[in-house]
Design a protein that fits this description.
This is Knr4/Smi1-like domain-containing protein. It is a single chain. The chain is of the alpha+beta class. Helix content is 38%, strand content 16%. The relative contact order is 0.08. The chain is elongated. It has two domains: 164 residues, no CATH class; 153 residues, no CATH class.
Length: 332
């Protein structure tokens, strides 16, 4: 490879380095022709917005630049991984952060539809020290404390835009069309403990979990389940109050297995505060970790009383919700 490998100086330098070593220097990684054919994506929008440039693991996953907009400096574009068996995830906010991500990998990355980015054992990386020296010499950069740090930074900064974009094209690529719930899914998968009393995200966004959805089709269409409540005796649902596209701004309600429904919060972020404010008993050993996550991602803290969240929702939307619900279930 030569210094004309790509229109990105950082990748041109990386191509020169790769040509100077005779073995792997980052887990599962090797450059491929920049902008190689991506017609296998079979969607004009995906083909125009994803620029392939490298192998990500031994089974054929790929790294691509995501054309989040029409900027001319391609080095500032986010980087995504496309799983060989499905899935697409952000891994870095730009090329230089991506180079740090590579330096930090202890295992090969892997992904699947709607699941958090994972890692698995791969081949040895004999030339890693040479790569670390190259990264420091050319950019003054060092490995991150954890490779996932760049993934989390990308999700925090660009996750909402990415979710909005990819969900319209491949709904299965993300857990849900709601960025906040996708982040919560990532957190829940990383924590081997309950973190909110009686709560757990549904395996499938929009799935009821009961044998049947509510008998009224309009009710089933307008109340979108996303989590278990009361240890499975009820569901948390998003109320499609209108046709807005940002589902994180929809009100949250609780739907019982008997069909009753009650408002809980005015939007998803307020609902996340509600969860953090539930009784921190022995049933929720991960509550402190959740509170830290909530602050780190959204700058939010528990409220003194979760009832205040419910009261605010009912004060603002209660009459409208009751009027909508009454003809469908015979009253709230």
């Amino acid at each position: 490879m030569t210094n004309t490998y790509s229109p990105i100086p950082e990748l041109n330098l990386l191509a020169e380095f790769e040509g100077s070593v005779d073995d792997l220097y980052a887990a599962g990684f090797s450059l491929t022709p920049f902008g190689r054919d991506n017609s296998f994506l079979k969607d004009p929008e995906l083909e125009s917005r994803l620029i392939l440039f490298a192998e990500a693991n031994a089974s054929g996953s790929l790294y691509a630049l995501w054309r989040v907009d029409d900027r001319t400096d391609l080095a500032t574009l986010p980087v995504a991984i496309l799983g060989d068996e499905g899935g697409i995830h952000l891994v870095a906010r730009d090329i230089r952060e991506f180079l740090q991500f590579l330096a930090s990998l202890e295992e090969e990355p892997c992904c699947d539809w709607g699941e958090p980015l994972g890692f698995r054992d791969g081949e040895p990386v004999p030339c890693r020290d040479e790569y670390l020296a190259w990264l420091d010499r050319h950019f003054g950069l060092a490995p991150l404390d954890d490779a996932y740090d760049s993934v989390e930074a990308a999700l925090m900064e660009l996750g909402k835009a990415f979710t909005t974009w990819i969900y319209q094209l491949i709904p299965d690529a993300v857990y849900s069309p709601c960025h906040e719930l996708n982040l919560l899914r990532e957190f829940e998968e990383s924590l081997d403990a309950d973190y909110a009393a009686g709560f757990g995200l549904a395996m499938e966004f929009g799935g009821y979990g009961y044998d049947e959805a509510p008998g009224n089709p309009e009710l089933a269409e307008s109340l979108v389940p996303f989590a278990l409540a009361n240890n499975g005796d009820a569901l948390y649902v998003l109320w499609r109050i209108d046709d807005r596209t940002d589902m994180s701004t929809l009100p949250v309600a609780m739907l019982s297995s008997e069909g009753g429904a009650h408002l809980i919060a005015r939007d998803v972020r307020e609902f996340l505060q509600f969860l953090a404010s539930l009784d921190g008993s022995e049933e929720s050993p991960g509550r402190e970790a959740y509170i830290g996550w909530l602050d780190r991602h959204f700058g939010l803290a528990p409220v003194d009383d979760p009832g205040t969240v419910v009261e605010a929702a009912r004060a603002e939307l209660g009459e409208q919700f009751a009027a909508w619900l009454a003809p469908r279930v015979g009253g709230a």
